[in-house]
Amino acid sequence: AFKGGFNGSESINRRAGKADEVVMYLFKIKKLLQKLMTLVIELDQNDKSAVLEKQMNSSKRRSRKKRVDNKNATTQKKSRMRNNEGESLSEKVVGEGRLSNETNVDESTTKHHDEDEDSSSKGGEEQIEHVLRRKRYHNFTTDVMAHEYLAFRRVDRFYHRATTHISSAVNDNLERKFMELSVTADMFLTGQVERMVGLFLAIARGLIDEDICECVFDEDYSSLVPTPPAPRFALFADSSQYMTWEGKMKMILSPRQSKTHARGWSDPDVIQRVNEWKASLENNIAQVWLRDGVVDEDTDRLVSEKRWTTEVLEPWAQNARVQLEEWRKWKEAKKNASASDSLIASTLLPPLDSINKATPELYQWTLQCLRDADASGLWPTTTPKRKLVMVSKDDDTCLSSALMKAKQNKEKRECAYSFAEGQGGASGSFSIGAMPGGGCAQPKGNELFPELLEAAFRLEIALRPDREPSSTIAVNRNAQFRPHTDNGAGAGQSRSLIVGLGDYVGGELVVEGTKHDIRYKPVEFNGWEERHWTLPFLGERYSLVWFTPKGCEGVRGIDLCKGND
Fold first, then answer.
1. Pairing outcome for strands 472-477 and 428-433
2. Using the 8-state DSSP alphabet, how is residue 256 labeled?
């Protein structure tokens, strides 16, 4: 578009205007791609997770510096010992001079270290601190959940690397421009890159608003908002960096031009062969896009592109717009709740008096046992592992700060969460029935609440008489769970059964994006394979989950009840 001579001032102005449009287009692409990256930002001292991340990074740097200093000190000590062997009088003088110089170096190093420590107040002005904030990329994969530390990733670069023209190998008249995007990160989750590209294309095409980026990375939003995957065949691993090992082995371990080390893959012939292979790979990818030709001559649209758009991108966008609107409402409710110091759910949900508080006869015995257990003061503490998938009611504790605290915790195997008292009692979860391991040892809850044990297992039989009786029940009180899959595996039964009890509003169970009202309405789902979570609620909410874990085959929880025939 920019080749060829200019034809007078009018042509110059027209081409200049076109150039401005292209520059603005590329600028918009750059800003959009940056929304999906991790950036260095100014440190907010009120952001606890950012402060913790800064402390962790500083601690790592100090540890690395200490190791290097110790290594250098050992090397200098060995050098002095070699030089002092068989020393003469003149050598002693030289040795004293060397020792004096080394002492000066140590003093200089200490001085510089002190200057670094005081750099924040240099010139009487406080220096602004910055931090590289990682993001949760759990919405860009199906294998990692938000509560897992692996979801916090660093994406250093996501940029438009090149635009190439490639012609079809079977149709000489078919040529297309292909945009090459490059992503650099500390590591990639399964499916992360194709979903980053898919989300970028959805926004660029106007199928979803840009604030979807804020939504998918919002740490406080507990619902899943999956992103659309671009076709995987267009993705390939470009390079890997092994800086630490290159330093240890004194050689270049990835094909690139470098004069750092003489050995390795820095040979020009190797680099040329790798570049030629990449070019052939890009051509092969382009041929897959071009293989089926165009839809029609008028639109000149590729069949493969239209197929992906209509089968993947547009259906995703339809659901994502609904999820985005829900997130906007939640964000507004969070803002109002913060301003009024009230619960977010109270601004999102209808009042409690809007529900029918009459308890169905089938559930009355079990609900009364649950309330008695709550009032007894003997409700068991939630295990640290289960706490991590529960939403804390403590507004002072966010997910990333909890994860960082847990990672820093080397002495106690405890969850970093603290749970504040909720409506109807504190959040809590424990199990009754049989548990795998140790010949299916009975949980403590069996002895504490024998009547609840019998009532809950009899309720399962009444709800699903054709279902094989379960061995175990998870008992939850006012617990809002983050998206997760259950640990272990099902023993033949494979599907869990859940029901909600109590006077509450909201609190639906979401299974892979599908909402289920479980208040006195039992639902079966595969908890080991399907991601599921709880929506916000108000009031007194209990839930029972019947399941049979692997290792409890043939065990019926109802048989553990005293006096059971």
1. antiparallel
2. S
Average pLDDT over all residues of the chain:
81
What 3-state DSSP class applies to 129? coil
Q: What sign has the CA pseudo-torsion 141, 139, 36, 197?
A: positive
The C-alpha atoms of residue 488 and residue 434 are separated, in whole angstroms, by 15
Residue 188 near residue 305 (C-beta atoms within 8 A) = no
Q: Which long-range contacts (CB under 8 A, 24 or more apart) does 458-465 make?
A: 458/558, 459/362, 459/363, 459/365, 459/366, 459/499, 459/544, 460/497, 460/546, 461/558, 462/362, 463/362, 463/497, 463/499, 463/522, 464/497, 464/522, 464/524
The string of pLDDT tens digits covering residues 201-224 is 999 999 999 999 999 999 888 899
Give CA–CA dist 460/559, Å, rounded.
Answer: 13
Give the contacts of 9 (CB within 8 A, at least 6 positions apart): none
**Rama region for 76: left / alpha / beta (φ>0; ψ in -120 to 50; rest):** alpha
Asked whether the beta carbons of 470 and 554 are under 8 A apart, the reply is: no
DSSP state, 127?
A: P
Question: CA–CA separation, 18 vs 23, rounded Å?
Answer: 9
Cα–Cα distance between 156 and 152 in angstroms, integer?
13
Task: Say how many C-beta atoms besides its own lie within 10 A of residue 28's C-beta.
Answer: 11
Of the listed ranges 138-147, 342-351, 475-484, the least confidently predicted one is 342-351
Residue spans of beta strands (DSSP E) within 393-480: 421-422, 425-426, 428-433, 472-477
**How many whole angstroms separate alpha carbon 478 and alpha carbon 500?**
10
Task: Give the chain's radius of gyration (CA, Å).
Answer: 31
Single out the residue of 230, 139, 137 nearest to residue 186, CA to CA: 137
> Can you spell out the DSSP letters for 547-559?
E-BTT-TT--GGG
Give this prediction's pTM.
Answer: 0.78
Label residues 502-537 b or e (16+ Cβ within 10 Å = b): bbbbbbbbbbeeeebebbbebbbbebbeebbbbbbb
